[in-house]
């Protein structure tokens, strides 16, 4: 079981995600069982949404990793419940702090959202759309190898008739590549190391590199299966992110208005009066 680059932030999110209720089984299939307890797909989706905020990684690319961490989260949660840690004074104190923080955040978000009209979101979207040209992507398979000699041998196998998928499963040292037959999905030039991107975007669909490609992670044999132009995201796709950005920008204004409308007295560390001047 590997936890890899998702890191501690992801694991913390997944420990929390393990407590979410499951939907009906027919709409929300079971993706794992832990000591007889079902874990549903909705838990995995919520965990991915928490992680995606830190990397925007497609779910299918981290599915096994996320599944492992959700399973770990359930195991840890089960043990915590067995020890009745819900009744521990330290837990209750921390929970009270978290409850206050969540209430504060919810109020600020709701108040800021009320300040943002649909027209403001639409205006920002149009500006982003105008500044975002279509982006070319290629769908690639690749075989990662430890040496140039191994990469040349893999190319020789391909030239002799071995399928790229079979060669990747047999030879790639990338665990995800072995499982998927080297399928890395669609990539843009800015989503791959420069050497990899330069080689991939020179290929036509159906072609693979005839010379090994070296990068900081090893030696690659790359095949392009498709090319496409990707337009900017639609308004409905972009709206949640834009709204979130506008809310974040509005929160300081909400806080400022609260302070200006309140009667506030400040005191020094020793409790003596502070010469407190109101904000202008």
Written description of the protein model:
The chain has 280 residues and is an alpha+beta fold. It folds into 3 domains: 4-83, no CATH class; 88-132 and 233-280, no CATH class; 137-230, Roll (Chitinase A, domain 3), CATH 3.10.50. The chain has helices spanning 7-17, 41-52, 59-82, 89-114, 118-130, 148-159, 164-171, 175-180, 194-200, 235-260; strands spanning 30-34, 37-40, 135-145, 183-187, 213-215, 218-230. A 4-stranded antiparallel sheet has the order 4-3-6-5. The chain has a two-stranded antiparallel sheet with strand order 1-2. Helix 1 packs across helix 3 and helix 2 (41-52) crosses helix 3. The radius of gyration is 26 Å and the shape is extended. It starts with 6 loop residues before the first helix and ends in a 20-residue tail after the last helix. Mean pLDDT is 86; it is low at 1-25.
Layout of strands and helices, then pairs:
Elements: H1 7-17, E1 30-34, E2 37-40, H2 41-52, H3 59-82, H4 89-114, H5 118-130, E3 135-145, H6 148-159, H7 164-171, H8 175-180, E4 183-187, H9 194-200, E5 213-215, E6 218-230, H10 235-260
Antiparallel strand pairs: 1-2, 3-4, 3-6, 5-6
Helix pairs in contact: 1-2, 1-3, 2-3, 4-10, 5-10
